[in-house]
Structures are given as C-alpha cells and as structure tokens.
Write a structure and sequence with these properties.
Chains A, B: It catalyses: L-histidinol + 2 NAD(+) + H2O = L-histidine + 2 NADH + 3 H(+). The structure is a homodimer of 438-residue chains. Chain A is of the alpha/beta class. The first copy, chain A, has 16 helices and 14 strands. Chain A has a six-stranded parallel sheet with strand order 1-11-10-9-12-13, with helices on both faces. In chain A, strands 6-5-4-7-8 form a five-stranded parallel sheet, sandwiched between helices.
Chain lengths: 438, 438
C-alpha cells in the first residue's frame, strides 16, 4: 500500500508511471519492412504473412459471404440475444450523437455552413489471440453504421480452422459490414491503408492490436497516401476510487477485470480508507484463484497499485494526475464528485456500474484513450467516423459589406493577390451601380 | 491546357499529383536533435536557437504584457476595425458549433452520457516570415476562446526588432491569449510539447509552419509525453471550377491568391469551356505583372494546371479526385452542384466568394486539410479544441436488466473476471431480494 501524502513529488510521479511501450528500432524496422512488402507485392505478401503467422493453408483472403452466413447462424441463441441487446444500446447511444449541420449568416449577405458527412471507407481491425472479441466489432461497426460510411471492411486473423469466431461473424452482420478479410497484424493494417487487388484502400483505420498493429497504424498514418487512424494506443488500465462504504468484492472484481486483459494491464485502487484497501487486497487474492485467466491477471496484479489518500478530494487529485482510461467511482453519492474529476476516458458511477458494463453493453464505446491520452484525446464516438467541411457563399451585398475588411487584412498581411481578388469584385459592383443599378 | 478526356488513367493521376513533401532523413534528424536539445536544456536551448535563427539579441522568451499592450495599441484604426469584423464573424460561426452534452437511458436503469469539455492548455503557433499573419491568430485563437480553454499560449518568432507585428498582438489580445513567447520553428514546438521553465506544456498544438515546424509537430505527436496536433500539413492549394459564364478576371485572381502563398502552392483551374480557360490564362499574366509578390506567385503559376473537362459533371469528378483544400465554384447556380461535390476542405460558392473571404473574414476557419487529406480529415473547428468523454451509471435495476447480457458476452469472450464482476453484483441483489426486499 502506498501512502500518498508521504511521497515526494518525484515518488508520486513514479507511483503513477506507466510501463514503457515497445517502440524499439527493431520493431519499427520489422513493421516498416512488412508495409514495404505489402506495398510492392500486394495480396501475395499479405497471404504469405498470414500463412506464416496465422493459418498455413490459407487459400483466399476473402471470407466468403456463405461462410459468414454459416458462422453467424451457428451462434447460440443466448449469445446472439446478448449481442442484440448490446447492439441496440450501443446504437441508441451513437444515434444520439448524430450532429446537426450549421448554417449561419455572419454578416448580411455572408452565409457560412458547416456540414458533417460520413467517411467513405473505414477499415475495422479486430485482433485474434486468446479470445474472440465480438464486443469490439460492435464498438467499431455500430458507429460506422450509424455514421453511414459506404464501405465498412473488417480484417481479423484466421483461427486454427482458417475461419473466424462465429460471434464475430454475427456481430459483423448486425453492423452491415460488407466484407471480412482473413488477415491480421501489420500486414492487415498495410493492406487497408494502401489497398491491394483484393482489399480496398480505406480512409481511416480503427481498432486495437498488439505492438505490431499499433506501430503499423502509426507508420501508415504518417504517409500522405496512407490512412488516418482512430487514436494512439497503449495498454489498457483502470483506476478505482473507493471509500469505506464500497463493497470490497466489487472493487476487487473491477481491478481483476482489467488485469485479465493482459500482463501489462494497469490496475490502481485509490481510497481514503485503509480498511477498504486491505479488504480489497484480500478479495483480489480470493477471486484470483478462481479465474481461468489467472496466469494473465496475476502478473498484472503484481504491478497493481493500492494508494491510500488522506481524503476523497486527494484521491480524486491522484486520479486526475493519472488520467485513467477507465475510472470507476465506488464512493457514496458518486455523481456529486463529477465536477472535480478532470480526466478519464470513461467514468463508471456507483456500485452497479462495473467496467464490464461499458466494455460490453451499456451503450458507451469501449475504445478509449489510454496511457494518459485522456488529457488530450476523446473516447471513440460517432464523430470519429465523420468529417466536417465548410461552405461559404457571399451575395453581391455580402461582398459590398465585407469587402473593405478583407482588403484591409490582406493589405496588412502584404498579400496583394488576396486584396486584388476582392478589389476586382468591388470594382465590378461599383461599375454596375454606375450603370444605373443603384 | 490539359484535355482531361484524352488522358490515360496514369496520366490523370500524374496531372493531379502534388509536389513531394520534404521529409528527408536529414530533416528528421535535425528536428530530432532540436527536440532533444530543448528536452535536455530547456529554456537555454530555445533561447540559443532563437538567437541563432531569429533575433541575436534576445533577452527573454516572454513578450511582456506591457509590450503586448503597446504593440496592440499601435495598430491603425482601419486594420483594428477589420480585425474586429473578422473576429466577430469567426466567433459567431464557432459559437454556433458549441456541442450539446448527451444523456440517454439505453435500457431502464442504464444511463449513458457523453460530455464535451475544453482542452486545458493549447499552444498556438504563428509563423514569422515575409508577412505577419493576424488572420491565423484569429483562426486558432477564436475557437480556443469559444471552447473555453483555460490556457492559451502563442509562440511566434521575434522580428528584426525583437518584437512581433502589432496586428498579431492586437489579434491575440482579442482572443484572450494569456501569454506570447518569442520563439519559432521546431524549438517552439518542442517547448510547447514538453514544457520548459518558462513555456508551459500544452495538451495540443495548432498552426501552420515550414517543414521544420511540420516535422516537429509530427515527432512530438508520436510521443506519449508530447502533445496532440491539429492535423497533418502540406502546401496550400486551390481548385477553381468555372464555366463559360465565369468572370475570367475573378478566376485569375483566385488562382493568384493561392499562388502568392508560396512557390509550392498548387493552383488548378478545371472548366468545361476552352474560351474561359484561355481568357483566365491571359488574365493571370496581366494580373501577375502587378503583384508585389510576383516572384513567389510566378513559380507557383508555372506549376498551375488548366484542365479542360468535357462537362461540368466531369469537372466535378476531377475535383473529387483531387480533394482540394479550397474549392471555388464559379459556375451558374453553384449551390445546385453541392450534392455532387465529394471532398474539399472548404467550398466557396459563386462569383462573390473569393478565397480571400474565407481566408480572412467570412467566419469559416482557414485551417483546412491539404494534400488530399480532405478525404479523411476535417476542416479546423471548435470540436478540435475540446475532448469528449463518457459516463455511465447503472442503478440496481439497470444491473438486473443488463447483467445477463453482459455475463453472456464476457463468457463468450472467455473473460471470467468481467463476468464475475457482474455475477457478484447480481448475487448481492438476489440476496437482498431473499431478505425480503422484493
């Protein structure tokens, strides 16, 4: 247990430090080579890498519509029903985010508009690995559907049968995803960013992944012929704020929910109650022994931090300094604390709001800024699947009204041609006036 | 003149190609060294670089409030009035973009919220160079003011007097910018991203610049301890769509407005009228000879492209393929073409809407995606100065209603602890029920 008030400034910083991210020169080089290979050899390179890393017998990168149908219909009724419920909640919450276009007359005769439009083509990346992630399909696919993106494609590595998990096929169908490609890793990111004969180029790539995927997303986002990406990534993390009234078993289960994501997951408990911290620690040990993923959660919990703060206000300051991806507030009248909370990707209020609720089904998006990025990036939302552009239209009167100001500013900046573009128009209007149009 | 329908697919691509951007290994290294130097030596490094590149006698990085006042009050009444008009229009258009928070009950007892909040600290970069740019101060400063960012600082290189242009001081005052620092280039970007004793660290950096500034913004945006940035940058560009009814002098003046920004500026005219193209070319020659910045505009116009399309619809397809930063539509009933126009940072409709209007005073933002980024990035707006986060709060009923779906999904993903976090809560509710609470 860390006693916050006893720490020096430097010790406080260390207590909240995150693990270094893999960004070695070696990783950059390997990923750069994969991207170059996909760029020069296209599908052949993507197939080669997929055979090497995922499924040796791969014949085609395309998962056929027939296979998708068969897989989707093999999902159990219970899981299909759960996906349906999650889909509906996530859709409702993202429907509510649909923005309104703006039209405004700023000066008589000067009309300005801001319009929102969906991105044309989006690429959704779903990692393979130890468990299928239909929830991530929903978190990426539903906003793409609600935004109205014309082309929604999904890349995910094939499993040992050369297919994908039925739940992923079912969730993808719900979201109207048009195509599923059997590839993962940096090669999938490169294919979506640059396009191959089989895999169309997309405008923006979304989704989580390992260090190769993260590095590849970064590299393609720096290329003008590449793709935009959702947000920078880091290991997942939770910070739980709890007082003496919190249920220690609940607190422990929320810390462990985070820990089971991966050995580099960060779990932090901050409380003003030493008794709560002690009972949460004991509950963690008890629950840990029952988990099937204990071998993943245990090393993560070895890096867990239990911080004792002098007061609830101090505990909130610790959370603000950390800027957690997930912030769980198990304090009496949790909502009343919101005005003091500065940074978090998503906030879970009260005893009945575990992280699992937002991870799966409450309606909020589970793609959130990690690694302190909650200070300057947003949680994923509908707007990330759209772009904004502006329109302006001046009438002759608008030009008469605004022309002199534009000319004065252009002149102050020494930009003659900008000034002349207005002067010529003002002159034409003056000439028209002279001819009796006044 | 390029006859579009005569070109092969490859020739079309070449006709719309943009100049390669400077991103040599040398540039990366130089900028990386500058950032490392600012990181290790702080203010001393920033002062050294500024003395070397901008003003040898620099004493302090801070432009005193007294100096700002004196400079601001020395602006002529005409220019001050023009800045006031531009400020009011830009403010009105960005005020209209203020988003509304969302609160939604997705399932009975499950409340989800999306909240918008201003970024805390933003760094605005204003280049030095041949002309002061008060308009850019407004385009960055007004949305920061409207968003409500607590800390708005501005970096700009000192001029030959060790000061800044009075117009910049005046515009900065209007926007409530709290501090102005006398530095530019990669060193200014590094200082804002990492912080020094004098210059506070910011959450996000905005603004245009040369290749050093652009590279520095990219490098700091890749660091977890760095800062977010507004958008990727490229040379400025305009595409003018015109028909036979367009005024050739207006068209020429709009092409030249773009060309005078820099020798790498791109100016493209696409028309279905050969006569209009010929008269626009002649008008460009005539107007060019009168411009004070002809030596900048002339090389840019040597790379200008005049494209003859078979029809207005074809001309729009050319524009969509190019995805211009600025799109000027000087075609009869320009507004009716909007549904066909796919990509542009900002669209200027009709004869009385020159690019200068949006550059300075109509109200729209002049920071726009260039280099084809209009396909996947937005024009700068109020939302870029804010971040979004979510909140969820389940009541006991909410947990009862949603718990089974969450558990089914967690189980399908093999995440026991996620399931357990819900199971424990469901159990507690069931126990409470058994005790007569039902």
């Amino acid at each position: 247990m860390i006693i916050w008030s006893s720490l020096s400034k430097l010790e406080k910083k260390t207590a909240l430090s995150r693990p270094a991210m893999a960004n070695s020169q070696q990783l950059k080089q390997t990923v750069g080579d994969i991207i170059a290979s996909v760029e020069s050899k296209g599908d052949a390179a993507v197939i080669d890498f997929t055979r090497k890393f995922d499924y040796p017998d791969l014949q085609s990168l395309v998962l056929s519509q027939e296979n998708i149908d068969t897989l989707a219909s093999s999902v159990t009724a219970e899981v299909a029903g759960a996906i349906d419920i999650a889909f509906n909640n996530i859709k409702a919450f993202h429907d509510a985010q649909l923005p309104s276009d703006i039209a405004l007359t700023t000066t008589p005769g000067v009309n300005c508009e801001l319009r929102f439009t969906p991105l044309d083509a989006v690429g959704l990346y779903i990692p393979g690995g130890s468990a299928p992630l239909p929830s991530t399909v929903l978190m990426l696919g539903v906003p793409a559907l609600v935004a109205g993106c014309d082309n929604k494609l999904l890349c995910t590595p094939p499993n040992k049968q050369g297919l994908i998990a039925p739940e992923i096929a079912y969730a993808a169908r719900k979201c109207g995803i048009e195509a599923i490609y059997l590839c993962g890793g940096a090669q999938a990111i490169a294919a979506m960013a640059l396009g191959t004969d089989t895999i169309p180029q997309v405008d923006k790539i979304f989704g989580p992944g390992n260090s190769f995927v993260t590095e590849a997303k970064q590299q393609v986002s720096l290329r003008a012929d590449g793709a935009a990406i959702d947000m920078p990534a880091g290991p997942s993390e939770v910070l739980v704020l709890a007082d003496e009234f919190a249920d220690a078993e609940f607190v422990a289960s929320d810390l462990l929910s985070q820990a089971e994501h991966g050995p580099d997951s960060q779990a932090i408990l901050v409380s003003n109650s030493e008794a709560l911290i002690e009972s949460a620690k004991a509950a963690v040990e008890r629950q840990l022994s029952t988990l099937s993923r204990a071998d993943i959660a245990r090393p993560a919990m070895e890096n867990a931090r239990y911080i004792l703060a002098d007061s609830i206000d101090d505990a909130i300051l610790v959370s603000n300094a950390y800027a957690p991806e997930h912030l769980i507030v198990q304090i009496e009248d949790a909502r009343s604390l919101l005005p003091k909370i500065k940074y978090a990707g998503s906030i879970f209020l009260g005893p009945w709001s575990p992280e699992s609720a937002g991870d799966y089904a409450s309606g909020t998006n589970h793609v959130l800024p990690t690694y302190g990025y909650a200070k300057n990036y947003s949680s994923l939302g509908l707007l990330d699947f759209m772009r904004r552009y502006t329109i302006q239209e001046l009438s002759a009167d608008g030009m008469r009204n605004l022309g002199p100001a534009i000319m004065a500013l252009a002149s102050a900046e020494g930009l003659d041609a900008h000034e002349q573009a207005v002067a010529l128009r003002m002159q034409k209007l003056a000439n028209a006036n002279d001819k009796g149009d006044a």
